[in-house]
Design brief:
By secondary structure, the chain is α/β, with parallel strands linked by helices. The protein has nine helices and 13 strands. Strands 3, 4, 5, 6, 9, 10, 11, 12 and 13 form a nine-stranded mixed β-sheet that branches. It has a two-stranded antiparallel sheet with strand order 1-2. Strands 7-8 form a two-stranded antiparallel sheet.
Length: 337
């Protein structure tokens, strides 16, 4: 998540409860086939443990390892992270959106690159409409020394969200049940001012793509306690996205966060550049508004602090939601007046 002002962050940090014992007692994903309505017909969507805890932990463990040294933009560590994401995209059979997977640009003297994949829609008309699923894969590199550790590994922020994008890319490239086209993007330089998403949003706008909606995945590594939903979207009141997602999920999967609204988190992650460029519903899905995680931009944002059963359940629940989003005969997600 883009750096908050010092005052805002201190206010949030002070309000954080001690949630290092965050509950992992989430109900396991039922080993059944979910039925979801697509294009006014019923289609079987197999989401049975599509992604496993082991797969999610493996992705996060690589991206948030000490070897990658906090994935600061322009570093060798983020280059290794980009290589990893490219390899995963290629193994899934996902095509690059541009000539290569890397969407290159510079920040001063730094070489920077988003990693962007593309899955064409199956419908002759709807394939001209796009859904973008993204997450930032960079972090801040280093942070204040704690017991000799200065590597800000960024497991929750945002190796967690990146693992979600990779998992969803794998699902859709295997199933190919998307009438609309889908762009899967991982952004660099989020921590330097949302620069990677700004670059890609402007580039796609120049290409005049028809962007239906953008779903950004940010900090999904820990669950809320005492709330009746599993994740929130930033800018909840700006569109009907949460309502549509809950309808597609068949439950209250998505809620609103007063903390996120108070601190303007809608404008502090990579959804915002796409909203600015396209003025369509572009929101961040997150399970952390900083009241339930003590290690924001801290060296202890480590792999062992995340709740993998929760993450796995949330990602698996997003699959049928996104399937219906990609196949709805008309655009039902709208900005509120």
């Amino acid at each position: 998540m883009k750096t908050l002002t010092i005052l805002s962050f201190l206010t949030l940090f002070i309000s954080c409860d001690s949630t290092k014992q965050a509950s992992t007692e989430s109900n396991p994903v039922k080993s059944t086939t979910t039925t979801t309505t697509v294009d006014e017909t019923e289609a079987k969507v197999n989401t049975t443990n599509f992604v496993t805890e082991q797969e999610i932990k493996g992705m996060v463990s690589f991206l948030a390892s000490d070897d990658l040294e906090g994935r600061d933009t322009g570093s060798e560590g983020i280059n290794e992270a980009a290589n990893y994401i490219e390899t995963q995209f290629k193994n899934y059979g996902l095509k690059p959106y541009f000539e290569t997977y890397r969407d290159n640009f510079t920040i001063g003297e730094l070489d920077a690159y988003n990693v962007v994949g593309y899955l064409e829609g199956t419908d002759p008309k709807l394939k001209d409409e796009f859904i973008l699923i993204g997450a930032h894969y960079d972090h801040i590199g280093s942070a204040k020394d704690v017991n000799g550790d200065t590597i800000a590994n960024g497991a929750n922020d945002n190796a967690a969200g990146t693992s979600g994008v990779l998992s969803l890319a794998k699902y859709f490239t295997e199933q190919k049940n998307n009438k609309r086209s889908i762009i899967f993007a991982t952004f660099t330089a989020e921590e330097k001012g949302l620069l990677g998403s700004k670059h890609l949003a402007e580039k796609l706008k120049e290409n005049n793509i028809n962007l239906y909606t953008m779903i950004n995945i940010e900090m999904i590594g820990v669950p809320f306690i005492g709330r009746d939903y599993q994740a929130f979207i930033t800018g909840h009141e700006l569109s009907n996205l949460a309502e549509v997602m809950n309808d597609y999920a068949g439950e209250k999967l998505i809620g609103a966060s007063d903390v996120a609204k108070k601190y303007g988190l809608f404008k502090r992650s990579d959804n915002y550049a796409f909203y600015q460029a396209f003025k369509t519903p572009c929101h961040t899905v997150s399970s952390c508004d900083l009241t339930n995680f003590d290690f924001y931009h801290h060296v202890d944002d480590e792999v062992d602090k995340l709740d993998y059963p929760f993450m796995t359940k949330l990602i698996n629940k997003l699959v049928p939601v996104l399937v219906q989003m990609a196949n709805a005969p008309t655009q039902v997600i709208k900005m509120n007046e």
